[in-house]
């Protein structure tokens, strides 16, 4: 009898572990009857608000970093004082424990044999590109290294392609076709666990996310299947978790496919989707040959990649919408 009770309690815990206990706060943001409400948990821990305090301004006069130091391929037009200030800030953002030596050979700061230095250089260029070319998504506040890293060498929220491990028959359930492997990224559902590779790794030829059709059956019109829908639902579930919002943050539930009845956030999310594709295709995936094996995924040469959670980390605006670039204009559009 005791074993039976223990089993029953364990089953109950499993059943309710993914549920939110009341009260849950809701805010109506659409027409009555459309179920357009934002849902929030007042007990959820608040995301850290704002970036670390900016370092005191440095003089823009004097010799340039590219004239004084060797092998400065980016930011060489900054004064030595401002260059040093930015490097100090980046150290706090990315490697507060290891310090400068995380990216540099202390015996030769110009040495490129430290892979983290090569990666960091490319990440600076990527940050400038985001702030310069993707203001439709990041706005005037922009991003800097801390947006993703939060004081950690490797951002907490990255992803790798699962490849055949998502399909293989090495488990007792046999051939699972990418599904039935509950994963945190898709809300522990049985939706396809790798809901990113076909959507977020290229600027052209990506799988279509659109599924809603004006017809009774989307297949003939859009050439999509129920399996395609499940991949899309997995991606949308991930986005919802990444921003800490529900579907109605972007969509009107009476017409998911209708842009005119959607919220402005849907267009912002659209730009974010294309931004992530751009960053993965042109900055992150090409770094695969630079990383050591322990930094790569299961697939041969698969580099860590970004998705919405990389920056948002559970809130609609990363770090509460804090200004990331005005104190460090060399990372922003104003410097381009």
Describe the protein's topology:
Elements: H1 2-16, E1 25-28, E2 37-40, H2 65-68, H3 80-94, H4 115-133, H5 135-138, H6 145-149, H7 197-200, H8 218-222, H9 226-243, H10 264-284, H11 308-312
Antiparallel strand pairs: 1-2
Question: What can you see in these coordinates?
Answer:
There is one protein chain. This protein is mainly α and 336 residues long. The protein has eleven helices and two strands; from the N terminus they run αββαααααααααα. It has helices spanning 2-16, 65-68, 80-94, 115-133, 135-138, 145-149, 197-200, 218-222, 226-243, 264-284, 308-312; strands spanning 25-28, 37-40. The protein has a two-stranded antiparallel sheet. 26% of the residues are buried.
